[in-house]
């Protein structure tokens, strides 16, 4: 769904009449715009206003200064450049761009053509993922290439390369327009209009302090509040407190750095992994508040910008793959993005990593450990340590904790685990579709994918399916039978994952940390259920 924002009295009848926008929103200034973006983004799922399933434009008025009166509109042009830089850093997954009213009038046909092409591309899941991973053209405000300011390929759509370069800017200051937002008030306003959920400290303790925690049954705002509760508590214990407003800005920025429209790898997964990390640390490292905070931060940031695919689907010649020499591309990307967010919004956290060598790169080590291609390395570490007197190092311990948390879905109670199994099944289906799509295009290296026209028909963003998916997960009571009737392939996928990755890992983890025995017991129980369902399906 696409929005046309008209700011401060800006007008554009041709854009309104173009049929490219689903709604028109008139706002007073940039601050009210940003508040609106935040409140729209945390609208209860399925969310039509996520700013990823359409292309939104923000039209700024000419200021009436000398340059504008001369017909050049430079004042509004400069404001648009600054706003686009802000979007790139604090709303990176949003398909949104600011333009001046002067620029609209100057080159309306080009603008409409660009929005039309990008609207078509971003509403098709497969070509959208391809664009995210392989689009290599950067917008003018990142390259400072002013002669491309009116290019037909302005990169309104998200791409990983664009996200990476926007995050690497040297200006770490938070713009005043963001500092002026009182996030506690914004949270209260949005919360009052949404569904009821945990609100008090005691209620959040109850929701979070159990292995039955289900991020999938919480709204986006409730997830942000869960993150706030955990990080606020841990920061106090680790003696690196931060202001509530800054912590909320960090969490809203992180949420906007995840693709809300991904099936599995989204902010819900991030909070789920952080909660699991927090619980595991309370068992393994109960008194090490510093490491627990750093590890929980690594957990919430370990998949920022995830395209919902895997490392094997990156083309070797793509800009993102080349940046990391094809090695753990996603994990290196996630770390670089997340560390840049922390440097800007919570730099004092890094003081915790400078006290000794083992802790120096703790967050980086933790995030890189989530690469499933090196899973066997950690199984081997567990095997070796379980038969020797050599203790685990700090890096090995934190790597094992976050790995356990990252694949903890199979260790949750069945009614929680099955919902995650459903979502990962959908994401694997998306990966298969992308692989087929890439093979059909051969070795195309067109760096401007917005210009590529595919022969296959495009599908509009399917809100009906999003609603069905949401209802399946959140039905009361939850019907596992109905889910498996609609998606009979789930048991086979779960059996494969448990046999290939999870069982040996959690079994050996429990040998070193006996208090984690409940994890492998849940894995075994879930596995037996999936085997029975698979057998009944085969025999019928």
Describe this protein's structure.
With 540 residues, the protein is mainly alpha-helical. It folds into three domains: 3-167, no CATH class; 194-373, Catalytic domain of cyclic nucleotide phosphodiesterase 4b2b (Orthogonal Bundle); 411-539, no CATH class. The chain contains 27 helices and four strands. It starts with a strand and ends with a helix. Mean pLDDT is 91; it is low at 65-71, 146-152 and 449-460. One of its GO terms (biological process) is adenylate cyclase-activating G protein-coupled receptor signaling pathway. Zn(2+) 1 binds at residues 269, 302-303, 406. GO terms for molecular function: 3',5'-cyclic-AMP phosphodiesterase activity; metal ion binding.
How would you briefly describe this protein structure?
By secondary structure, the chain is mainly alpha-helical. 59% of the residues lie in helices and 4% in strands.
Give the CA-based shape.
Answer: globular
Terminal-residue CA separation = 43 Å
User: Superfamily at the CATH H level of the largest domain?
Assistant: 3'5'-cyclic nucleotide phosphodiesterase, catalytic domain
CATH architecture of the largest domain: Orthogonal Bundle
Share in β-strands: under 5%
- Across the major sheet, the strand order is 2-1-3-4
Give average pLDDT, whole number: 91
CATH topology of the largest domain: Catalytic domain of cyclic nucleotide phosphodiesterase 4b2b
State the major sheet: 4 strands, parallel
- Compute the CA-based radius of gyration: 24 Å
Structure classification: mainly alpha
Tell me roughly what share of residues is in helical segments: 55-70%
Q: Helix tally?
A: 27
Domains counted in the coordinates: how many? 3
Unreliable stretches (pLDDT < 50, length at least 5) are 65-71, 146-152, 449-460
CATH class of the largest domain: Mainly Alpha
Total strands:
4
Oligomer: single chain
Binding site for Zn(2+) 1: 269, 302-303, 406
Pfam family, one: PDEase_I
Keywords: Hydrolase, Metal-binding
Binding site for Zn(2+) 2: 303
